[in-house]
């Protein structure tokens, strides 16, 4: 058990407070009297339910209970408790509006994920990653060289196709390249999460938290690129230490099929077109990116239909694929966990903890200390609701401080596997290798990178503070 004394005790309070307040749809309750449950037995019970469920997530490997089960149960129970209180006070309509707001926000995220994972599954079925593995192995790179390569690619792709999609794609590549070598896959997945999260920080489109800051007008488009060097430092520090844990040697050539199935290259281009469509929907039409992703799913389904008919005429069974079958292979455990944990936290936010401690956080402690502490919270709780919490507080900060909170929440989530969407999804994709405890073993190196990136930002971007 951790023991907090002095100012470290303040950090414990921050963990307790911010997590409970994250993603609270405060505006949905503006028209009604807020019911403060922070000192109410119902509020305490909701807290207990949440932390018990979160404990089960941490010991998933030992209990063999999938992480979605406890958090989905906790989310439902917490909102049921809120429903009892608000119904007793005649405020059910306000609570309903708050719940619908959460469903809308995270429903969009889940649709985005469903399409992205469907494309990854389809590319895997078309042997895209087998072909990529063959190409990488043909280069005769060692495991350590491959480790640095996948880290570099994750850092490059993160700001372009977002950190979550990067983790999905590069995770599949690591599994394909390192087949049969447990330690390489574990370290490869860890550096992918770190690099993808760090790469997503210095682009408005690279991370959901960065996108939220940009949408709210807290930072201009080009101000995000001031975070490039801090993000790079965040990757290089832990990667240097992890390098010595990567096994020596070179992957052996296996008996895999070396060529893509028919249509594999087209699926890659359709995926790129889908991501471009999502960006266009947001930047040009101000529509949710999920709508663009769903249009991209239509691209895949129509192409699947065409290949099926062409395959029948040519009597070629390898040509056809079923896009709906690939959708059934989506990792629903991960998606339900992601939704359940955010919905549970949002319910605790409605209970009123944010209003109680927001002034203390940014008033008494100051923005620099608060923003760094919030980033540390990403090690235990998803960075998306944490950023929602800060944006809801809307503290009066300089652009340098908004850069700091963007950096800290983006890279702080790398400290543990469940601290970011990239880590959560990769846990589902590489279930038997990339686990909570395997990631935790290297948390010390990632923490050093976190500290180094913060210090780098405070140095090179001092004029913005």
Structure, briefly:
With 465 residues, the chain is mainly α.
Tell me the span between the first and last alpha carbons. Answer: 36 Å
Computed CA radius of gyration, to the nearest angstrom? 22 Å
What is the SS-derived class?
mainly alpha
What fraction of residues sit in β-strands? under 5%
Number of beta strands: 0
The structural domain count equals 1
Number of DSSP helical runs: 22
Low-confidence stretches: 1-28
For the sheet with most strands, the description reads: none
Describe the structure.
There is one protein chain. The chain has one domain. The protein is built from 22 helices and no strands. The N terminus is likely disordered. The radius of gyration is 22 Å and the shape is globular. The longest helix is centred in the first third of the chain and has 34 residues. It is mainly alpha-helical and 465 residues long. The protein is 71% helix and 0% strand.
């Amino acid at each position: 058990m951790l023991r907090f004394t002095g100012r470290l005790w303040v950090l414990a309070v921050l963990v307790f407070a911010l997590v409970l307040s994250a993603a609270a749809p405060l505006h949905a309750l503006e028209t009604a009297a807020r019911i403060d449950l922070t000192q109410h037995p119902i509020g305490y019970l909701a807290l207990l339910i949440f932390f018990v469920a979160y404990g089960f997530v941490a010991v998933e490997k030992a209990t063999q209970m999938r992480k979605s089960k406890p958090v989905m149960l906790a989310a439902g129970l917490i909102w049921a408790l809120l429903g009892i209180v608000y119904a007793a006070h005649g405020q059910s309509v306000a609570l309903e509006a708050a719940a619908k707001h959460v469903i809308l926000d995270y429903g969009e995220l889940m649709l985005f994920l469903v399409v992205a994972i469907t494309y990854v599954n389809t590319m895997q079925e078309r042997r895209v990653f087998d072909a990529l593995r063959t190409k990488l192995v043909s280069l005769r790179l060692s495991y350590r060289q491959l480790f640095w390569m996948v880290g570099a690619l994750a850092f490059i792709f993160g700001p372009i196709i977002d950190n979550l999609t990067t983790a999905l794609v590069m995770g599949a590549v690591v599994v394909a390249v390192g087949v049969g070598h447990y330690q390489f896959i574990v370290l490869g997945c860890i550096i992918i999460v770190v690099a993808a999260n760090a790469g997503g920080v210095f682009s408005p489109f690279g991370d959901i938290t960065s996108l939220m800051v940009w949408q709210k007008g807290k930072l201009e488009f080009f101000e995000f690129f001031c975070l490039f060097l801090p993000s790079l430092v965040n990757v290089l520090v832990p990667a240097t230490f992890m390098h010595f844990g990567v096994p020596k040697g070179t992957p052996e050539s296996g008996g895999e099929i070396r060529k893509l199935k028919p249509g594999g290259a087209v699926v890659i281009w359709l995926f790129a077109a889908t991501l471009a469509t999502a960006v266009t929907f947001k930047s040009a039409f101000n529509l949710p990116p999920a709508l663009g992703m769903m249009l991209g799913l239509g691209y895949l389904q129509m192409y699947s239909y065409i290949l099926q008919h062409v395959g029948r005429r040519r009597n070629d069974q390898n040509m056809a694929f079923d896009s709906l079958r690939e959708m059934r292979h989506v990792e629903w455990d991960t998606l339900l966990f992601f939704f359940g944990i955010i919905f549970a936290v949002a319910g605790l936010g409605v209970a009123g903890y944010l209003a109680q401690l927001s002034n203390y956080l940014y008033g008494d402690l100051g923005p620099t200390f608060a923003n760094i502490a919030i980033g540390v919270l990403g090690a235990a709780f998803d960075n998306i609701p944490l950023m929602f919490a800060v944006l809801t507080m809307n503290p009066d900060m300089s652009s340098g401080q908004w850069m700091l909170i963007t950096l800290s929440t983006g890279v702080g989530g790398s400290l543990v596997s469940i601290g970011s969407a990239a880590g959560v999804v990769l846990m589902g994709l590489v279930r038997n290798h990339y686990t909570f405890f395997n990631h935790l073993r290297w948390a010390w190196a990632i923490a050093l990178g976190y500290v180094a990136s913060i210090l780098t930002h405070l140095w090179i971007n001092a004029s913005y503070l």
